[in-house]
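Checked the freezer inventory, then went back to the computational side. Two predictions to log before the end of the day. The first one is the construct we discussed on Monday; recording sequence and tokens without edits.
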Amino acid sequence: MVQETGNNPIDFSKTKNYILSIRLSTDGFSFCIYDPNRNETVSTCKQKLNATISLTANLKQVFNEVNFLNHHYKHVYVVVSNERFTQIPNELFEAKDVEQLFYYNHPQIKNETILFNSSSQTQVTTLFAIDKSSFQLIKTYFPEASFHAETHLFNEYFIDNERNWNKNRMCVNYKKDSIDVFCYDNNTLLLINSFDVKQKEDGIFYLLGIWKQLNFDQEKDELLIKGEVSEEEFFIEELKKYILEIKIDSKETNVELQTLLKYENNKWNI
């Protein structure tokens, strides 16, 4: 059953003025309708995956159940959240080589499409995979939809929101069963990686291992954790034993949509 929330009724006569954001992840989907004229979210909904059927069958079911997915929108953004991504400098990227570059770093899987996002701000291109049947289904409903890697958007967000730093920092996108790790020397990207984290100890091990590998300072450099996490959690308490400067950002903000809207308004390429 799709869980829908929202303080405002959807005026289906105005959906051509709204922005629809669709997030695809390994554990389910989420949808957000945003009204740029009122600068507010109209409605959101979430749907967990039914593990007994395919990803595409799950999507078909949602499109059949959720009325607002059968309307036209000003923009449709699809954000893909998974570990099948890789990043290279813009200067080394050529679109004709996208599959060759991607499969250099990942094992080949049947029935997937390789897409990419390039940023003129960070000069980084992110290559990422999406299930081919799901991609085709979404394009059937929304031919003009644009697809974006979650890690690409978070990299833009972290750099854009921390431009005045003069030290190393590690930024973490903290999720239920995984973490995405972004490391910077000032505003220069050093590393991006994603890890499955079934146990909190695993996340601590990965973060401290990267911290040591990059020779970050335990007293001067900073760790920023973005997501649903509190100061009192075991995960944070353990990290505080080794890293002095830890900042927690647990505010519920749609980072992906926020970043896309900002770049659209500034006419930047992302």
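The second is the one RB wanted added to the comparison set:
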Amino acid sequence: MSVPAGIRDGSRSAVRIVGTQIEVVKMKIGIGLSVAVPGRPPREIRQWAEDSERLGFHSLGSIDRLIYDILDPLVSLGAAAAVTERIQLFTSVLNVGWRNNPILFAKQLATIDLISEGRLTAGLGIGGWPDDFAASGAPTKGHGKLFDDALTEMRRVWDGDVKSISGATPLPGAGRPRLLIAGLVQAGYARAARFGDGWVAPTLSRELLTNGVRGVNEEWAKADRSGKPQILTGRYFCCGPDATDVMSEYVAHYYGSKDPQDNEPILADSIDSDERLLDELIVLSRAGVDDVVLYPASSSLDQVHLLAEALERVGARRNPTFEFTADSGHTAMNGTAVDDGEMELR
């Protein structure tokens, strides 16, 4: 199984966040576009985006791979931006390590930000899939410096410092687009504090999440940054009577293994029932996550509606877009919405 390094060490019960000193926040809830679900009808991206905005999701998100059956995330987010007005646009994450032209990449991100009128928050990472690096002819070593250099050059583009005799590229507004930086070691947390507005946690492992939140806050203080870093993460979800099977098939396909033991770290934090939805939302909000994007394992358009209904059942509230706190989840847990425990995400 060619899972990127550093993510195969979590389990659902590995960490209990009890008595944490991290502040509980009102966590905003978004939904991923179905771009990474093999066989999805590409033209339905428009309807998915419009339904997500209408039903109150805070954001639309996209993941990123090169050698896989995934629609290009930049093109897809541009299409979503053109048919929506308010919903935020997140990436978690776009891979910088194998994109060999930071000036072109910066221009692409600026274009989405301009089309969306400032709604883009770009989560960026180095990337971890070997096939993507091999296909791009990207260096196999020195990724940290490459990432730093790319971020520096991209900011120069957005500041208007990269020009031809005819002028600069299209410029987003000051401080745009917003950047969140991924990384699972101290150097990655320091990079987030230096270049970004916050940190992107991986889509699995509560231990990696809690360690990362702690690490990036430490580096934020060392860098004398004001305020707090924005924390973004994601989780896979599937709704419906076959949710567990669909989820297992999707994870096996995406991560390239049919061995249940290989896939357990990913499935452990995936969501296929009201109980698991509530559990993940409580844990993430207590850990200090500001934004979570729930990524679909199925491309059926009814997933948007079904997830919105499930969020209401477990205590998420529209204000005006979906948000959640652990207190609201406990209220739902003490009512009738999730009394059956194993209730499916209908």
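For RB: DSSP finds twelve helices and twelve strands in the chain. Residues 1-22, 336-343 have pLDDT under 50 and may be disordered. Let me know if you want it refolded.
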